[in-house]
Design brief:
heterotrimer; A alpha/beta (137); B alpha/beta (148); C mainly alpha (399); A: 137 residues; Rossmann fold; five-stranded parallel beta sheet; 5 strands; 18% strand; B: 148 residues; alpha/beta; Beta Polymerase, domain 2; five-stranded mixed beta sheet; 3 helices; elongated
Chain lengths: 137, 148, 399
């Protein structure tokens, strides 16, 4: 039994962190919770504090003003935590990569485990991303 | 609103208006000297009851160009007040005594272009991080973005 | 002055899409002042637009906000097309209006759901978001994506709506309207919601004028403005529809305006579909070669109010200045009038009532602040407080 099986064998709790996003990925994450996709049937839910979370979902580019806060939230998170970069922006900077307020892609700020590209990724893609991570040996 | 009549009235009321130009369908640009700004804005906003939309500021050839946009909702016309201030001395009166809502946009312009608004009630940094360098204004023409 | 407590509303929100940060200055239960901290989501879009070509700017402005991802291209198209004075084909006008109105329906449903959640009515949240799904599926069929549709281009639209797709859309709307009746009934006839929302966060017509607030926020206070009618664009002057206005100015009136607006949107779409079917002309786009030097100002009525785009061209490939004003930019400051004087438990719904969109506003939301060091209540607790108040009220009206 690997570490992953030990720590993530129960329902995952999610914390959603919008670093500087356009809302698209954020509402698609919410969509995952509502009746059509309904991840709550697996016991997955959004929690109000990162201290309760197993998964940290990050959307949007990391702006110069949010960089400090992203780091702070990552430090508060209980380890191990799965960091998921949702959407093109945290993965690479996407369309905003040339902005003067861009502080670098997410993996330059905190370690990232799962990348889900797309602008925005469909809810199915997000679910598939998490499942792939859990099944990876 | 009858635009011909509006033009005549405003010219009669404020003779120091430089030029009035219809820039597009239902879009009117009024070029005014800086001193006239508060009076004419007060006239449009309070007496004619126009809706304030937003303020645009840009770095153009003549200096810093500040455009105040007002909307006349009964006719669909947008009335723009264009003020040009010299680049050497970037300051202008704040419109906050007349229009309550301009507070945010004036602070934003202070951040992005470094234009000083005199008598602004809260001249603090609006959108940039604490670590943003003091005299760096990304919307100025001479701004060079550092490559990371 | 008595003892003032600072209650940070925010920093992050467990269920609202974007983080936000308000400082509520309170005296006991009563909110005395509200200060908004911003800049967390500033992405410098206006500057990026100045480095892209006119055609590419569409895809940037689309990503200002994922919910209004048609309204911004709409206003930008109006602005750019007004510089050379392009008249777009009739078919393109109808298609633009269909996409715009579908977006309004999905955005208002989203708001109804979130408002329900704020008040502790999670059933409304789940229902509204469930009814939203067929609309998003329809978007996928028409445009190819659930959000960020990339439908618009200079001089028209990029994809046609075939008769087959139009029929599908008609079917989706027919299915949707009875559900909307249900939802409207659930919200409008509920005594608890009446007790909770009436006379809360009231804005007068003067407040609206002072701040320049627009959209449903203004229309709920009896201010009769709607850009679709006042400064017609696309097909809005070719179809028959009404502007919904309420007089009370409180949160309930805002909900009422949004709910009833969905019927009007459905009406517009149905008329546009009929017009599309009759129209045999396949042209959906006119070719625009260059954008001459000049200034273009375009606006569009987004679900939250007027979107304003100012584009200046010097005859080159890209705009030399592109200014964007999203509706929330003038609606959010109205919190200073709507929340102040109310109780803390009402603050959550007051702020939600204007349907604030932070990414639009800053075109630029994540905060974590230890600095105040005073009593801290985060949004989760605030929502809990709000939900607890609803429960009490429910007991009072014996439900």
């Amino acid at each position: 039994m690997g570490l992953k099986d030990k720590f993530f064998k129960k329902s995952l709790w999610l914390f959603h962190l919008s670093a500087g996003s356009c809302n698209n990925c954020d509402i698609e994450i919410l969509d995952c919770l509502t009746p059509k996709f309904d991840v709550e049937r697996f016991g997955m839910k959004l929690v109000g504090s990162v201290r309760h979370a197993d998964v940290l979902l990050v959307t949007g580019i990391v702006t110069k003003k949010t960089k400090k806060r992203v780091l702070e939230i990552y430090e508060q998170a209980p380890k191990p935590i799965v960091v998921v970069a949702v959407g093109a922006c945290p993965c690479t900077g996407g369309i905003f990569a040339s902005s003067y307020n861009f502080a670098g892609p997410l993996d330059k700020v905190i370690p990232v485990d799962v990348y889900i590209p797309g602008c925005p990724p469909k809810p199915e893609a997000m679910l598939a991303g998490i499942v792939k991570f859990l099944n990876k040996k | 609103m009858d635009i011909e009549k509006f033009n005549e009235d405003i010219k009669a009321k404020f003779p120091s208006i430089k030029t009035i130009e219809v820039i597009n369908i239902k879009r009117l640009m009024i070029y005014i000297p800086r001193e006239l700004l508060l009076k004419i804005a007060d006239h449009l906003f309070n007496e004619l009851g126009m809706r304030y939309i937003i303020v645009t500021a840009m770095d153009s050839k003549e200096g810093f160009e500040i455009i105040y946009h007002f909307s006349d909702d009964s006719s669909g016309w947008i009335i723009n007040l264009n003020v040009i201030i010299p680049r050497e001395k970037p300051e202008i009166e704040s419109l906050t005594p007349v229009i309550y809502g301009v507070e945010w946009i004036e602070r934003e312009i202070m951040d992005i272009l470094g234009i000083k608004f005199l008598d602004h009630p809260k001249p603090e940094r609006f959108i940039f991080a604490e670590s943003w360098p003091e005299c760096e204004y990304p919307y100025r023409r001479d701004y060079k973005q550092e490559k990371e | 002055m008595g003892k003032k407590k600072i209650v940070p509303l925010g920093p992050y929100h467990p269920l609202l899409e974007e983080p936000e940060f308000f400082k509520l200055y309170c005296d006991g239960e009563i909110v005395k002042d509200i200060v908004w901290e911003t800049g967390y989501n500033h992405r410098g879009i206006e500057k990026i637009c100045q480095t892209k070509t006119f055609e590419q700017v569409f895809y940037v402005v689309e990503r200002i906000c994922g919910i209004c991802s048609t309204s911004h291209p709409f206003a930008y198209a109006n602005a750019v097309e007004s510089i050379p004075g392009v008249e777009i084909p009739l078919r393109a006008k109808y298609i633009r209006s269909i996409v715009g109105e579908l977006e309004r329906i999905h955005s208002h449903l989203l708001w109804v759901g979130l408002a329900g959640h704020f008040l502790g009515y999670n059933t409304v949240f789940m229902w509204a978001w469930k009814y939203r799904e067929p609309i998003l599926d329809m978007f996928e069929i028409i445009t190819g994506n659930r959000n960020s549709y990339a439908m618009f281009t200079i001089g028209g639209v990029r994809r046609d709506i075939s008769d087959e797709k139009a029929n599908q859309l008609k079917k989706v709307l027919e299915d949707f309207l009875p559900k909307l009746d249900l939802l409207v009934g659930a919200v409008m006839d509920d005594p608890v919601l009446h007790a909770r929302l009436k006379n809360v966060g009231t804005l007068t017509a003067e407040d609206i004028h002072d701040f320049g607030a627009v959209g449903p926020t203004a229309r709920a206070s009896g201010v009769d403005i709607d850009i679709r009618r006042d400064d017609p664009y696309a097909a809005y002057d070719l179809v028959d529809w009404n502007v919904i206005i309420a007089q009370a100015g409180d949160v309930f009136a805002k909900a009422e305006v949004r709910l009833l607006e969905m019927y009007e949107s459905a009406k517009i779409i149905q008329q546009c579909i009929e017009a599309l079917k009759k129209d045999n002309n396949d042209e959906i786009k006119v070719k625009v070669k260059d954008i001459p030097p000049g200034t273009g100002i375009g606006r569009a009525e987004a679900p939250r109010g007027e979107v304003f785009h100012y584009v200046k061209s010097d005859g080159g490939n890209s705009p030399v200045r592109h200014k964007i004003r999203a509706p929330s930019y003038t609606c959010i400051p109205t919190f200073r009038r709507s929340c102040v004087g109310g109780t803390i438990s009402d603050a959550a719904i007051c702020t939600a009532a204007v349907d604030p969109c932070y990414c639009c506003t800053e075109r630029m939301a994540q905060v974590y602040d230890h600095s105040t060091g005073k009593k801290i209540m985060n949004a989760a607790e605030l929502i809990k407080l709000s939900q607890a108040k609803t429960r009490e009220l429910r007991k009072k009206v014996k439900l």
